[in-house]
Amino acid sequence: AGSRAGSRAGSRAGSKFGKKSNHGGSSAARSKAQKQAKAEEDESLEDQLFAHNLEALCRLQSIRGSLCAGREMHTLMLSAAHFSIRFFECSVELANNFAQELHNKVIKDQNAAAAETATDAPKLGKKEEIEPIQIVPAFGLPVHLADWAFQDKWAWKESSLLSEIFKRAEQNGLVWSDSCTWVGHADAFSRPHLSFFNFLRLQDDLEEHGYHLWALPVLAMSFQLVSCFEGALAEAVGCLARLRMLRFASACRIRAATDGLRKEAEDILNHLPDTFSSFNEELEQVRSQRAGRAGTEVPDPDWLEVQVAAANGQAGAKVAKRVGAPWAMGELYVYQVWAELSKECLLHGELWSACTLAEEAERHANIHGDRRALRDIAITRAKLATEEGQHAEAIRCLSTLGAADIQQSAEASMLLAASYRARKQPNVSEEILNEALTAMKNAPSASKNADAGNNAGSLRRSKTNSANGGETQQVSCKQILAECMVSTTQMYLDIARLDAALVASKEWVADMHAVFDRNLHIGQYLVHAGFYRRQVQGCIDFLAAMIEVIEAKELDLSRDPKNSGILTYTYLEEFASRLCDAVLAVRDSRDAILAMTVPIEGSDQDVALPSESLLAMLDVWEARALALRRVYSANAKLDKRMKAARARLAQIASKESLMAGAITDFFGEGGQNGGKDKKGRAMTTSILDMDDEVENWLRLVDEQITEDEKISSTAREISEVEESSAKVSNAISVLQLATSFKRGGEGGEEAEEESSQTVQYPAAWSEAMAELGRLQLELAARQATLVRSAGKNPHQKVDAPVAAANRRWDESGEGKDASNPTEGPGLQVAERYSNALNGGNPMQTFEPTPPEEGAEEELSQEQPEEASGSRTAYPDEEGLLDFHHIACRSLCEAVSSALATRNFRAARRALKALALEAYGVRCPQASFEFLCWLQSVEVCIRAEEVFEELMPEDHDERVQMHQLKNLQQRWPFPEELGSYSAMKERLDLESPLFNRLQLDKLPAIEELLLSHLPAQTLVVTVQFYGNHIYVGAACSPPEGGTREERAAKMRFMAARHEVVAAEVQALVNRVTELNNRVEKELYMFPELNAELAESFQHAVDEAERHIVEPLSRRLEAHFWPCGVHAESPTNPKHLLLMPDAALWGMPMESMPSLLRLFGTRSYGSVTRDLSLHLHAQRVRGFAEISPDGAPLKAVLGVAKPSATTLLTDVFNEDSLREHEQNLPKKAETLSMLHQRLVDAKVIGNGVQSSHGGMLSSSPEDIKGMLTDATAFYSFGFGRFWTSIPSRQLASQNLSHLAFLGLFHRISNDSSFRRQTKTDSAKPLRQIAMENNYGTHLIAAFRGTLCTLMTQAPLSIPVQMRNFETFAKAMQAGKTVSKAMEEVLCQSVESSALRYARLLEGGTAQALPADAPPGPEDLLLPHMKTAYLITGSPFVSAEEPAAAGKKK
């Protein structure tokens, strides 16, 4: 009833508009003619409208709606949806009336029969006759709009009672008119071929504007339209209707109606290719007909030339004008249905079906000569080619377009721009978009200015058309949408350009503001045209893109302020404010969507509308923009204070120096008081004294400013946070509603089975939960800060989020800065070590005597409250809601759902709050685990970026992963699609990249420490955020005992070290820069430059002193109970270091502060990996994991000697220097070393191994060598990526490769030239991703277990000795770490032989007479930093089989 009421309201609105829009002429003759025509129309109509009338009205209103814009468009679309409901309602009313009349007729017949049989009985009076009974209406419409998705609730289904009623009514002559039609009548659709396309366009328009529920009755008409066709054509139309009903029902979360539709559609879709051969005869007839018209090969023209009157006004003068060919359509052909089906299959992820249908439809359209259909199919095929990464094919398909309507022009230009952008041709993309937008604006029907003040909400042309008598021409909504689509694509190209550009001048800031202005202009254009839903969606997409750019620039500003140009936090705050303005600009659209798209009578409880979910996400992004503004506002204030302090300090120093100089000149050297103060003491002036004075003054001013802000602005900020929290909570309620559905009955076994299933939340839900958790954490921090500021320590500064994090990371336990956080643990270690030396119990330490009863109370009364760090010092907090616990729970739920949907950016946002703000040192286990999760998510994000750049567009893995991502965005529950499940299963089996990204499939971190690592392995994660370095550490327990006993022995540590972000980044850059300078020097001279080596060592020592040494002291105090000099069964045996990407370039493994934990020569005891979860995934691919939590074996014999391959000097660039050529015996080259190692069986697979002296291996040859190897060595000049392009290795499956050794970074003149030429052809983004971190990441995500890489330049002779030593150690059965330890501990007879090559056969050169005596280390300190091991360092050659046993 409610839906019918709403529909009638829409009908009245449409009728009202129709009357208002009837702009007839003002003359009486024209008015009289119109009245006469209307009277003739009324005479031809019946008193009641039937099915065919209502279907025609639905088509007419739909066409009218597509030709206008604004509120008129919405009114007409809803009117069309109303008439689709009336189409069925009139049939239901007719059936009920016919049922009543048939019942009455039965009663009358019974009375007549009774009168005839009882001839002798007296006649009955009228009162005694049987009166007909009013029966209850037998048929009805679905109650709610959502009920239209259930076919079992349609009373007009085939072979139903309703059709039987109409059949009997016709037989009994109850149908009073020949024009009476109903559902199922042969004449219900007067023009079915037009109705087919009209219904599709109406459904698309309703979907565009968020009227998904109103589209369901229109889809029901499409189901009914199937009866107008026969055979394979009817089958194709029915399949399209089912697929569309499935998509709309899924969008509205009507999951109970989708199961049957999915099965029916899949069966028909799989059967459709079998019907292709049935149209061969029809195609032959069409071909012969066109042959008679001489048009067999050439399709119908796109343009026609017509004669029109000349514009000069001469009588009878005509000129030729080119116009578009009209769409003449007499019937519906099957290829037209297949073309629409291919579009729908693309949305469902059925790429094979879409390609098959598009190809067959193109073949039919060519035979029929239908160029309009060919244009549509060409765009569809271009979309399919783009989805498959075949951009050249997409460009080829679009090049066949000779004409297109304005919507097709927009789609084609965007597809071409995307294809050229993927081919690294952004300039061509911009040209295409500019030309397309210019053509649209210059089109005869283009909209140039919008009348924003039009009460009707429509856009009308600003300039008049002389051909129409000076009338203003109305603008079509399709034209407006096309222009906005192209403009939006241009805007995102500008955003990408700004993201890649450096902030060099004010032009960058001006361009940023121009982007904001353009977004507002596009939004205003859309809202005036009535595209409210598209404006809101565009706002969300714009916020996502711009926030990513702004956060990236903020990171550059904090770490590299010198290269950030004019960028300041003031500009960032301004950008964040403009983001908030962008949200405010869509308020009208938000209100319009809520008012129009939500049904008046409401919806079923299991239905969640897409428009409601969209508005929920708008609230989430609004909260995020406000949070970003709060952060940048606080940073901008701090930045201003620091600048004021520097200016004040410089001013005071300048004045004091001038005054001191003047006084010295006037009074002499002693000054005015002879250098004495008032008490006669010597008075000295120093800049440090002025610094102290300025610091004290700044502290007092800062406290005063803080107190003022607490009064003036704190309440406003808290109100903003609370309002954002409330909005996001409501948004989560809306999104959570989308997950609830009822499959069958209530209760019983079905309910229990449903409750046991894992709930799959939509992808947007994790983003909302992450934002809610962060807001709750901020609320908890502000709440606690306000309570503390009301206590007895008013001098405490109120900076809520930062202060809360500082309290949780405070290691002193008293709310004060700890000068030496390792002092207490260090004293305990020293005491245990002393007990061990004296024969006592090493684990016994001094414990203070507990106070007597009553003394504790007296002590607490004497002790000031500020010294107590417990919550009991603030009793007002006891009655407050524990937002901190609620926030942590919300954030954990966000992480869980984000990892399940691989939404790593939402997971990172939640994990940053959990790892950096939620726990700190108060709960080291939680801090360590969340730091590990955060690092793993960061690595996955970096991997997605790297492989998006390097992996070929048409690679199977990339195509399928892209499809999964698209389906997740289009469908609320993509896991219910068969295509989604099939692609995911295939990726699980074949894609190492996809397996690495599935973090949710791994067990808990505690299980990883127990079973995925050898016993007593110390895992340390080091991450750099803001002005702090965060450290989390845990040690796997020793062997022995049950799983529970070993888990109880695990130890955890968490710490935070304050640094200056710019200084840390400068140190990392300095190390990289010095390595590059050393490499240039080695081009010409084989010896290491002593001055550069000293500078390098100075930079490393400084990094060690400020970063690594504090970490080493903390680790020793926590994990070595008796110190590093005493043996203990719990001491760690191996250190797995996990620095993040910012600290990756630091050579931490060779720093003495870490080596001293295991021994100064134990280089193999310290290795690294990218993340803990990635390390576990590596191990799971090669080793068996114990289900009972037993530790991993310390040796993994998975590198088979027979499958060990060596690639040496690919381009044969090694050449001997002049002094090496003059030796008595020929010096050994790389090719000679290669052959010697192969002959000695150090390299097991000598057949597939090759060197440049034999042949120059192509990338395809190298890929073949990698395919058959379990251990692969590459030894050569330059970087590894000059031997094989990174794009090819990124597409290689290396799941079988246990070890990858890259012994490169040696150089000479020819290799330097080749390296320079190769890099000049690469984009800067690709070169940045081929750095040391990117190389290890590519190898890890393609499946390797362990990677060894040379990350610093080395001399050729030194690298040759190192490689030979390592290869022989591996061949002897040593692990990778022990083999590298042997390399780093090599010695040489004299330093004069350090840079001397070995002679042919591997013998050393004779010692020169003037050589300094005594053996020395072969490798200098700089050389020992050259090697880096990632992954599992316990890889070794495969153990030989025992005698008499088969291996």
Number of helices: 51
Shape: elongated
Rg from alpha-carbon coordinates: 40 Å
Strand order of the largest sheet: 10-9-11-12-13-16
| Uncertain regions spanning at least 5 consecutive residues | 1-26, 447-472, 663-690, 707-717, 740-757, 789-798, 814-819, 855-879, 1440-1447
The total of beta strands comes to 17
Averaged pLDDT: 82
| Share of residues in helices | 55-70%
Main beta-sheet strand count, sense and barrel state:
6 strands, mixed
Distance between the termini: 78 Å
Beta fraction: 5-15%
Task: Kindly name the structural category.
Answer: alpha/beta
List the main descriptive attributes of the protein structure presented here.
1447 residues, disordered C terminus, elongated, alpha/beta, five-stranded mixed β-sheet
At a glance:
This protein is α/β, with parallel strands linked by helices and 1447 residues long. It contains 51 helices and 17 strands.
